[in-house]
Specification:
Blueprint: E1 2-7, H1 11-21, E2 26-32, E3 45-48, H2 53-63, E4 68-71, H3 78-91, E5 95-98, E6 111-114, H4 117-124, E7 130-133, E8 150-155, E9 167-172, H5 179-188, E10 193-197, H6 206-214, E11 218-221, E12 231-232, H7 235-246
Parallel strand pairs: 1-2, 1-4, 2-3, 4-5, 5-12, 6-11, 7-8, 7-10, 8-9, 10-11
Helix pairs in contact: 1-7, 2-3, 5-6
The chain binds NADP nicotinamide-adenine-dinucleotide phosphate.
Length: 247
């Protein structure tokens, strides 16, 4: 048996871990940071919570006889990605990296590019009054110094997060989202600008299509840099690579 640790938190990680766990010769442990209250889970062994940095991850992998590591975390989980890289090297085991492709800016779209949430807040300040903030609750404090801006905030989990914002309405829902519903949301709430991370993937791209159709600009928070090394961009390609290289 080849024992795999899959760092998850994405739909593709769930699909990959569940698929590999069903394949002969693989024993899979799926790892979550534990931020989401009711995460989607694969049918395999699970663990939750941080490892305690690089050293903690190395110890976990040694203690649990992990043969190979898969980083299938979200494109913005930069710290975990860096820890995975360092820990796999220290433990002397292979690392497989999955990264879903980023969204490209359509030729007729109007995107402002931001490197961080703070940059995004700077772009909004003085330009827009009604904002759809779909970039998650993690960095929401970056928008707290905009008391004259009204925010529609969407997140998977209910949370006190948006309460740092002076004016907001909070909705909780989980993708996939469709174009008709996203268009209605932007129109009904009279949204002037959409703030999004460049997460990529089909589940949440309808908001971009809706914004484009309505002529609403987008503040796109660009991805953190990707570490050197091979990156697999589809579940089937990383599944094939793992089976070919580790069998
Ligand atoms: P991060 O900033 O890169 O990681 C912070 C710390 O959280 C890591 O150092 C690690 O703690 C722990 N951690 C992260 N992912 C983990 C995992 N899969 N299993 C165990 N521990 C994990 O990560 P993040 O951006 O907060 O994301 C946390 C989780 O949410 C990830 O699983 C990610 O895939 C998912 N997610 C993130 C976003 C986003 O926009 N960032 C969006 C959707 C889903 P230790 O140092 O203690 O090991």
């Amino acid at each position: 048996m080849t024992k795999m640790l899959v760092l998850g938190g994405t739909a593709e990680a769930v699909e990959f871990a569940g698929g590999l766990a069903g394949a002969r010769g693989f024993d899979v442990v799926y790892s979550l940071a534990g931020r989401t209250r009711m995460p989607t889970l694969p049918d395999c062994a699970l663990r939750r919570g941080g490892f305690g940095g690089v050293e903690g991850l190395v110890s976990y992998m040694r203690d649990n006889d992990i043969d190979a590591l898969v980083d299938a975390t979200h494109p913005f989980a930069a710290q975990m990605a860096a820890h995975a890289c360092d820990a796999a090297a220290l433990a002397g085991i292979p690392l497989f990296k999955f990264l879903r492709p980023a969204w490209d800016e359509p030729a007729d779209a109007s995107w402002f590019h931001a490197a961080t949430s703070s940059d995004a807040a700077g772009i909004i300040n003085g330009r827009f009054g009604r904002v759809f903030l779909s970039s998650g609750l993690g960095d929401i404090a970056a928008f707290a110094h905009l008391p004259n801006v009204w925010f529609l905030v969407r997140s998977i989990d209910p949370s006190n997060g948006p309460s740092v914002l002076a004016q907001h309405h909070h909705i909780t829902s989980r993708g996939p989202f469709d174009l008709a519903a996203e268009t209605a949301l932007l129109r009904d709430w009279q949204i002037e600008v959409l703030v999004s991370k460049n997460s990529g993937g089909d589940a949440t791209r309808a908001k971009l299509d809706a914004a484009l159709a309505l002529g609403i600009p987008v503040v796109m928070i660009d991805r953190p840099p990707v570490l050197p090394g091979t990156v697999y961009t589809s579940v089937s390609s990383i599944m094939d690579a793992v089976k070919i290289i580790l069998r």
